[in-house]
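Reading a protein record of the kind used here takes little practice once its layout is understood. An example of such a record is reproduced below.
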Amino acid sequence: MNSIGELIDRLQIGRSEVARLCGVSYNTVYKWCKGLRRPKPIHLKKLSKLLNVKMSELFKIVYGE
C-alpha cells in the first residue's frame, strides 16, 4: 500500500491546504509525508475523508497494523 505522503501528494491540493483542513501546521503535514511523525487519531479521521480512504486502511498505512 502507499505511504501517507504518497496519498497526500496525489491530491489536487497542496500540503498547505491539507494542513489547513486538518487543523495542523504545514510542518506537521511535512513530517507525516516524510514518515517522521504519525497523525493523531483525530487527524486520521479528517485525512480519511479528505483522501477518500477508509479509516481502517489509513490506520494500516500509518501504523502498519
The chain has a mean pLDDT of 92.
